[in-house]
Amino acid sequence: MPPTAALKKVFNTKSLKKGRPSQSRVDEGDDLEEWKKSKQLLRPKDQLELTEPELKDIIARQLGTNDPLIPQNLIQFNHAQGAFELIPPTGPMIVVYETQGTQIHKESEEAKKQVEDQGLDPSILEITDSAETIKPDELQNIPEETPGDEETQEEESEKPEVDSEMTEEDTEKETEVGEGEGEGEGEGEGEGDIEGEGGRAEDEEEKHHHGGKPKKLTNQFNFCERAALTYNNPVRVQDTQTTPPPMGTFSANVLQWVIYDAYQEDYAAQQLEKELERERKEKEKAPVSRHQAMTRKLVGKAQLSEAVQGRVLECWKVLERMVNQNTFDDIAKDYRYWEDPSDEFRDEEGTLLPLWKFTYDKTRKNTVTDIEWNPHYYDLFAVCFGFLDFMKPLDEGAVCLFTLKNPSFPEYICMTDSAVMCVDTHPKYPYMVVIGLYDGSVNVYNVQATCKQPAFRSNNVTNKHRGIVWEVKWAPDLPDGEMNFYSVSEDGKINNWVLMQNDLAVTTIITLFLAKDEVFGPDGTKLKMKGCASCVKFHPKQPLIYLVGTEEGNIYKCSTAYSSMFLLTYPAHHMPVYRIDFNRYNSDIFISCSGDWRIKIWEDNRLEPLFVFDVGACVGDVKWAPYSSTVFAAVTNEGKVYVFDLNVNKYKPICVQAIVSKKRNKLTRITFNPIQPIIIVGDDKGCISTLKLSPNLRIPCKAPKKQQHLDQWTLQCMKLDKLLSLVREPATLDIPEDTAESIES
Amino acid sequence: MGDGEGREKQEETKKIIHTYPLIRHSDMPEEMKQEAMELVVTACEKYSTNNEAAAKMIKDEMDKKFGPPFHVVVGEGFGFEISFECTNLLYMFSGGNLAIVVWKC
């Protein structure tokens, strides 16, 4: 629309020009003038040139209600009539914003109705009308008065909501408060002439309530918001959750060959199990392996580490022995090869060559109470550490197994809490060691399994001797394979112990009652005197027969078949009999030693000894040599070892040698090695000395020229028989007994 | 395949045919395991030609005894990966050629 634009421009410039003088801007006027002066007004080329009167001419313009832009004659197609029809013009008004007023004119019908609804007299409208300007406080009363009613109304409307949201208590409280307030206000407003009205209003209000009048209308004057904040009850989750049951996943493939393999595997395992079971049963038959079975039960790592330890231990043991062999190289050579050459020039006499000494640090104070070579290993021997000096009792004891291959340390150590007095190693199972203790109990160790605790232990209260156990001895196994042993004790009893599955079963086979009358005990009781057994020896050929030496000096010949009587009583010694030993070659011959300084050789069923030797000191132990029927050795308290050979000299020992110092030490026990020409002696300082017999002490029998075919055994027996035949002769010419007794070394 | 099996069978007959029930895997309590095993053996013997019936019987009995829902698979060759409620799984072989899986879930 270029023409209109141009027209506007014209109009603008005109109005500018026109309005300039009429503008009453004083302050701005000057600036504008100046600005105009400085600037040349640009005129459009097509501006009309008007004359002065033309310019002054006022063109009056009128604003009319007619809008030229409103469309005229709008039509619409009426489908009902099928023709166009006129739409009435819309008019010039445009509604931009529309809102409904809440005010009502006082004089209108509506206002009257409202007042009536509120229960007020319609005349109030006139009153208030007149008092509007005079009493503004009354005006206030009107809206203020309403809260009471409003409240109730609100309550009514709110109640259902409140019920749903709040607890009943809360609602009641709320209504009470509301009512209280309403009443208070009512009272507060009760001044002047309104008082009566207030009361009336209240009355009427009650009527409304009961009468169920139409609800009053609300407007902005009688509406009062009374917001109440109620407690927000915390939200609680009511549902419960349990942990789901544990689940697992499993997967496998089933194929025929899988099944087949599984069966094969299982069958093989079963076979193996059966095999093991059989082995176990076999082993369990022998109670010896009870501990092995137990150790086998140790599973997993423990077993493995034990095995590893065992192997390491074995290596260490070998190393230790090698070191010892180097250390005691000369002794080892002596032991093996040294034969005293001076024996050739010494007629009929021999010497003892000291070899190793065995001690164990923890038992230095103990006395060696028994020593015994192992029946299976010729280099191994068991030593008991206890005490014989009963004025100085010791708490601890031990049994140690030494080997000649390691003189520095015991191979096995079994510590006990009481002094060990005797030991015996089972001939069939060389690892089963039985010991008798000072406190009267007996223990059986399986040293192969463990040395820490006995495999069997007699009950400390019920199953024990009432005195020192002086000697223990393994007996041949019972017919059903159970091991058993005998023990003799100071209390005069000889017990037989059977190794059951778990414990020791004990039977007293004999009580050594003395052949004396009963003596009177306290409170009129009578006691039968009992002998104190101090040693026992079983007959090597007749398993029932055994000899018991007592502290009274008697030697009883007994049989395990009879528990009440002795087969024979030898009045052997005047002091305790310490040891008895049967001759290896002739089991009718036995030797005994005693504290009465004497060694006596006896023949079975002969109450008089064949030989008597007095060595001038208490004889601790005496033993027949295994290699000769006529050689025996004894040890005395004075620290000397005596070796006799009856074949060489019937009156004097062929060797007397002091092994330990006479003043300080005593020798207690002696044993021949069954194979090697050595003896070991134990003393009271816990030391065991090894001695090698010189050649003169072990001369083998020379077969007569006529009987070259005879072996050594027969020759030895012949030698002894020949000797005995000399002694036995009743009408003996040369050896009266007293002569023999008087002989002293 | 058929040939292979035949050869295998022959070898087996040469050796020993194992038909005893063999539990391959189970986390059931001992009593339950024994009972389930006996049930499986009974069912497999009763319906020796019909694995489906055997499985149904096992499932029904197990449901009755130990409470549903049990699932049972009886077959000679299959693979499985299952989720089961702990202490309710039994995987065993029976009769030398059958595998039985019983589980609860």
What does this structure look like?
The complex is a heterodimer of chains A (745) and B (105). Chain A is an alpha+beta fold and 745 residues long. Among the domains of chain A are: 108-139, no CATH class; 290-327; 344-515 and 528-729 and 737-742, Methylamine Dehydrogenase, Chain H (7 Propeller), CATH 2.130.10.10. Chain A has a four-stranded antiparallel beta sheet, covered by helices on one side. The model of chain A is unreliable at 1-24, 130-211 and 288-293 (pLDDT under 50). The termini of chain B are far apart. A four-stranded antiparallel beta sheet of chain B has the order 1-4-5-2, with helices on one face. Chain B is an alpha+beta fold and 105 residues long. Chain B has helices at 2-14, 30-46, 51-66; strands at residues 22-26, 70-75, 78-85, 89-94, 98-104. In chain B, helix 2 runs antiparallel to helix 3. Chain B is globular, with a radius of gyration of 14 Å. Chain B is 44% helix and 30% strand. At the A-B interface, strand 3 and helix 10 of A face helix 1, strand 1, strand 3, strand 4 and strand 5 of B.
